[in-house]
Amino acid sequence: MLPAPRPSVDGVDAVAVLPVLFVPEASQWLSTSSGRIAGEGYSWMQAVHWVAGSVLYRPRRHRSHGPRSFGPTTVRVAQELAQLFPCRPGIEYLVRRTGLSERSVEYHLGMLREAGLLAWIVKGTRVSGGPAQASEFARMIPPEFDVALGIRTVQRDEDAPAYTRAVSGIAEAGRELMAALAKKASRKVRKPRSKTSSRTPAKASVRGAEQGGVTAVSNEARCTPMQVGTSTVSSAGATSLPPESKLASGVSKSPTPKKSGGKAGGHRKLNAVGRRFQLARELTQELDWLRGCSVPRIAWVARGVADAGWTVTDVKGWLHLRGEAARVRRGSGLLAVLLAGAETVLDTPEKRADTVEQWRGAQAAARRHRIQQVRARTERYESDWDAPSSRAVQREVEAAFAQVKKAANGGRLQDQDDVADNQAAGLEPSEQELSELRAAAAGELMRGETTLITSLDPETALHIFGERLVRRAHQLESGFRSSLMTYGHR
Q1: Contacts of 20 (CB under 8 A, 6+ apart)
Q2: Do residues 45 and 192 share a domain?
């Protein structure tokens, strides 16, 4: 006896013998899923269209809110996921690509997981203060799809997980349905254009965004689109990969290329407002007293010179001609005063170039002056000692030398000159004179001068000025040799 021939399948809606299609939350992970991984996005879209047409999964059976059915909007979200490899879609990316709201995208992703078409590999996180990490999904084919079409699978590696099983054949009765699904997978589902006019109320426009208007996406960094074919032959379970020539550079073209309004390879020419902001940004970067000022405010202040074609170098030359303030309280206000009438005074490029040359010459002269100061200071502290310039300090130093000589000779002077000096200076300095000498040395130390103490030998200086002042003088002398310290007074 021969078995009766199986009836042919007329369409997707002919499947009615399978149980209700629903995957609980605990089985929505790759490690716990009962489905198998789709070989590529094309075969996965065949399973998506089968779920959409079979009506085996109805969202309202398992939830009280969200979309009512697995419809075209869910298929459009799946189309975006089919182009990603690896499948790491961000919610914001899907919102821009589909025109849906953030809540609607989350609803449709949940429906794809409940239908067994998606499984979590890594679940995204939202850390307070840090960037949100996108979830990574595995595109799955539910076992109900294999049963409905008579697809036979085999586990080639016994040690591999069950979701890695591959397709080994298909029943004759399922080929016709597979061909119909292949045609649907090769076509792109789009949202039909609305026939309403541009004067549609705001509520209608919001409702249209919820239903899914597609918006263009800039050329941003995202997951690499897969290279898929458009053959109508079933490719379920195939493991074809893109050619190596497509992956050699590691860069793929975006499905929505950015349109360039200017010449190829050129930059767009700035308008008047753009030139103002460009000059303002350069001024805030190169002038110290404009650091931290608002760029829009500086652009408004410098609008006159920017419209006249001035550069930041021209502005520096003009500021040198006008003179800069040593203390600035409000940079934008000072700039407004200094730039008043600048474009009328230097109204030609030749005048501006002459001013820039004067500024550069002044910069070079100031640089040479600083070099000479550094050299003079270095020679001063590295050469022999020079006598103090103050006459009062010179008299105090001579008196100190006389007292030291007297103490070294036991209270008697050697020659008549020393006697005359001793008579002129007094037999012995009083405590008041020593305190004044120490006060003068302390004042010089506060100004960074150590000449009064370092001019004497260490023992004499220690005897006259004390250990504290001598130690402080040595500290300043060692600091003078370092390029990281600067001493002086205002």
Answers
A1: 56, 57, 61
A2: yes
315 lies in some domain: yes
Strand partners, 137: 87, 120
pTM over 0.85: no
Do 123 and 182 share a domain, yes or no? yes
The total of other beta-carbon atoms located within 10 Å of residue 415's CB is 8
Phi-psi region of 129 (alpha: psi -120 to 50; beta: other; left: phi over 0): left
Q: Do residues 395 and 317 both lie within one domain?
A: no
* Residue 456 belongs to some domain of the structure: yes
Q: Is the pLDDT confidence value at 343 over 70?
A: yes
Which of 10-19, 219-228, 335-344, 426-435 ranks highest by mean pLDDT? 335-344
Same domain, 430 and 293: no
The answer on 410 and 305 residing in a single domain is no
* Number of domains, the chain: 3
Residues 368, 369, 372, 376, Cα dihedral to 10°:
-170
Domain extent at residue 186: 12-238
Q: For 174-190, what is each residue's pLDDT tens digit?
A: 898 988 998 888 888 77
Residue 34: pLDDT over 50: yes
**pLDDT in the model for residue 16:** 42
Q: Report yes or no: 234 and 182 within 8 Å, Cβ to Cβ.
A: yes
Phi and psi at residue 154, to the nearest 5° = -140, 145
Taking CA atoms, 9 is separated from 147, 151, 355, in Å, by 14, 15, 88
Total residue count of the chain as it appears in this document = 490
Are the C-beta atoms of 112 and 118 separated by less than 8 Å? yes
| Three-state secondary structure call for residue 286 | helix
